[in-house]
């Protein structure tokens, strides 16, 4: 941190003295009120009368001023801690940015996707990113910045996402595929795209994350709010103690001065916890940013520490997601060209990579297979494409002569044939199942192609073997989940055997195949009803309901816009292994907060022995026996304890930012380790620290 940055952080800490900012932090607000009152008393002592007495002890000259310094220093260090964390977050996330308000955008007016999908003849208007709203269509050409989060509805282009990933970030974004989502602030490197804006610039996941990481408009998480309520009750309790203390001892001892009562309250309320709790949240946020994970809410990060079940979508999460047709397998003596033509026609309106690969493979294998031009001609002659549906798990084509062609999963096709009043012969079904099982055992996904001609029974023509590969590093990170005690489930609409093969290769604990979007929702509900906290990852439109239902929804950056909006975390580099980072950082945050609370409460034990004997030792000399640290004088004991509050926050700040190591263990072992590593130092550090400060304070004349 250079001098300019340090000055900026210090100024920001002073700005946080505003009572309107501290209103939601009762401990720091009370500290500021005490500092203001103490300053007023110090000024009045200087103008009206000399040093005061407290509990029968005459306080040295300058005591109240030195106490004021300690109180203001405590408040400054507390706000400085949060400012340092926010500044650290700003530096760590400096490579991330959203499109600026004034980034130029080419707005397409009266866009017609059927007649002019490329928007070459459409009227356009120059505007800025700040003026765009959801539903607007913009044209983005090579070298232009994408003005806001959206979805590609026409075109194919390279998009530079290095601003997001922090490295080489060229990615292909193409309409009609599962790689249509684009992020505001990235740059089109080649060609041109027509993009439909999904969210306003300020509402994107990246914008929300940057606000959280940089401390702007940061909302406290539920645990922080609950802890604030607890701290407020502590403040109230210690204020009542201070207000009633003089009344309780009025018959036997001289009254305690107001500055000393203020010192007692400020030292005993958990100032360190109040100051550093938000620091742990901000620090955890930028740790995930460093790993390329956007977090939309503080609650999501807090929940991550409690995750016990992770549900993973197969395609695009466990596997690369670009399934490719590698083989056609005929059934029951069907002519190969018949199968190839039907498969190509059923894929005519399938925009996915697998749909295009079926047409390409069919064209390679047989000259008689209809070309893409012929398919478009048939469409214009009255054919009706049947788009893929997650609920039916089929796509296809209805020809003008009444012929129906379908392509889909084995169970879906058999159900469709039955609905058409046809049941394939037993030998055909047996052959189909045997071939599908062979494909699935080799890690492929079998698709069945069937046809129903007018006046003829429906029949299964054959199968298509689709292959996908598991992403690098997935198996190792799944093993790490197991070490953390997290159960993994893979849910997919693909064939059960194929899914089981992929799951076994990735070392996933359980697998659910042939699943519909409703099945995914039901599974999440079952896990939650059993008391589990569930994280769900996905990237398709059909995953959006499940992502919204899960305790944490995690979408890949290339996911459909609906999935990204339903999720509360987005992985920028599409690497599912970051799911482990999310859980580990969430648990590390929990462990750090537990360590800070234990350390602070142990501190208070020592503070009781430094403060309370000093209150009445002037009236009751026998209380000197409780001065276990052998502090020089009552005045020195009080000042040293206040100054230690300043020093200890400086000691704990790096711990709050970097966190404490998390190790999976049962509750008893975790509690024992916490008491050993945090409780014991919580007793030793203040004892040593207050004694050292006392040695310096005692050198001041009168103390």
Automatic annotation (TrEMBL):
Residues in P-type ATPase A domain copies: 122-213
The name this protein goes by in its record: Potassium-transporting ATPase ATP-binding subunit
Membrane spanning residue stretches: 21-43, 63-81, 227-248, 260-283, 608-629, 635-662, 674-700
InterPro entries, per database record: ATPase_P-typ_cyto_dom_N, ATPase_P-typ_P_site, ATPase_P-typ_TM_dom_sf, ATPase_P-typ_transduc_dom_A_sf, ATPase_P-type_domA, HAD-like_sf, HAD_sf, P-type_ATPase_bsu_IA
Compartment(s): Cell membrane
Keyword Cytoplasm: no
NCBIfam families xref list: ATPase_P-type, kdpB
An example Gene Ontology molecular-function term: metal ion binding
Bilayer topology term: Multi-pass membrane protein
Domain of life, per lineage: Bacteria
Keywords: ATP-binding, Cell membrane, Ion transport, Magnesium, Membrane, Metal-binding, Nucleotide-binding, Phosphoprotein, Potassium, Potassium transport, Translocase, Transmembrane, Transmembrane helix, Transport
Record GO cellular component, one term: plasma membrane
Ligase in keyword set: no
Name of a matching Pfam family: Hydrolase
